[in-house]
């Protein structure tokens, strides 16, 4: 069998290799031309020249710069099947995932080694930049005219917060075969651990992040242990307790504290049962209950460059002091309370030219609640810290501060990077509670997935303008919290409790 026949036999079932320019025709043509110009080759030495296969050079650089945040590729590939339901799941799967559509997209593949718990073999986790995942979500929402979002847990891994190994770029993939071929080229590693000096708690946080990514990427859900199931149930009940506590902070529910007990006593030890309705109230009258602990609510939204998430472009901060609400009727849908929110919009001068267009419609010039303020990058941390502190004259810890946001996980990460302390001296939390309007809305309505801020605003009767402006989003998250708490009667659907 000659070389040409052998190559055809080897590659005839490999569509990828068949598309490569092997150079066979050129080599044959060159040989024919040479034969015409030179003397015939003697029959006894007649042999086909060995063709040279010209392979396309491997892609050595990603198509977009990564900012240190990644999604587990396999978890992303199962998005509609694991996180959506009914007709929405079918539409998303049919238009973007089935028939190999998901794998035909261009993905920048990265990998990192890890050793799953209770396993001796070192595994690897395939990752793609969050920016590419958000581009897919943006296309889905445009196609379906929906407001879908990604899960808040296990779906986004932020490697910028840890001084440990960073994902390694593997190559670009535009098919399932590309992915498999690149994955097969990942070098073996006997141990993922690296000798890096770091605090134990930082390493544990890094390991927990990798574990969450591994769990999200697993093909099948294993049996959930009783202990883990109990933890999930407890976490959901903790959210319900926090919801009840939040209504007490706003004077919408009685303290249910034993008469004569201290107002510093935690309501978590005295909360009503989860199915206890709160009393109906007149929106034209001040609330009949005191504002428990008279907290200050601080809502934060941080916008960044969609192509490089380490570049913060906007910070929105809205503050509501419950002492300002004393004696003030809430008004229709808490309109009178919402007017008392103080809002600021900070724009980073060095990144002022950046406007997001590809994944989200950026609108940094359209702050609706005041005048935007330009801040130098090296002063941003100090400015944000000053905004989230208690009012001047109040001692540290004297006022109760509560953080508000829509999907607060990323905001907390960015606050740490900006130098905002999330723990006080002695280890007590800087914020007494964290109100995630996305999670709270999900729990109140017994849903399985969180909704976007725009979808939540629509449900609570608030018209939102120019979302994805940091100042507007921080303000609307605070307004959504007030409207949700006013509308919620205290009853949790059984689905959420389970």
From TrEMBL:
Q: Where is the Gfd2/YDR514C-like C-terminal domain?
A: 296-484
PANTHER family named in the record: GOOD FOR FULL DBP5 ACTIVITY PROTEIN 2 (PTHR28083:SF1)
Biased composition range(s): Basic and acidic residues: 274-286
The UniProt entry, under InterPro entries, shows: Gfd2/YDR514C-like, Gfd2/YDR514C-like_C, RNaseH-like_sf, RNaseH_sf
Which intervals of the chain are annotated as region Disordered?
A: 29-65, 255-289
> Could you identify this protein by its name?
Gfd2/YDR514C-like C-terminal domain-containing protein
Could you tell me where the Polar residues compositional bias lies? 260-273
